[in-house]
């Protein structure tokens, strides 16, 4: 079996960012802090999957969860410095997609 020449850190980063919906969640949070319901309604992500992805991103230090002691208690999610460092990368992917990915036909 051949040994991979890919840097382990790169492989780990791609594993984290390559999970379904992760890029979209980070992209949404680039606009600023959002509550769970706002993230759920602005995407097509189910609540369970969104919760799992947010937990993964929080565990990896990309997203922070801020509890606001209000009545009722509010929870907001925002990007950490580590998460904000992904912004230029996601912007470039967005630019690439505009140039190279065909727009889906809504009638399909």
Automatic annotation (TrEMBL):
It comes from the Bacteria. The keyword Transcription regulation applies. Residues 7-105 form the HTH hxlR-type domain. Keywords: DNA-binding, Transcription, Transcription regulation. It holds the Pfam family HxlR. GO terms for molecular function: DNA binding. This is Transcriptional regulator.
């Amino acid at each position: 079996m051949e040994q991979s020449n890919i840097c382990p850190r790169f492989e780990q980063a791609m594993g984290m960012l390559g999970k379904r919906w992760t890029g979209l969640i980070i992209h949404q949070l680039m606009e600023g802090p959002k509550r769970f319901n706002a993230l759920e309604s602005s995407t097509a992500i189910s609540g369970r999957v969104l919760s799992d992805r947010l937990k993964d991103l929080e565990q990896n230090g990309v997203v922070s969860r801020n509890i606001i002691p209000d009545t009722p208690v509010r929870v907001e999610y925002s990007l950490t410095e580590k998460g904000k460092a992904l912004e230029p990368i996601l912007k470039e992917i967005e630019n690439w997609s505009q140039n190279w990915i065909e727009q889906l036909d809504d009638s399909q």
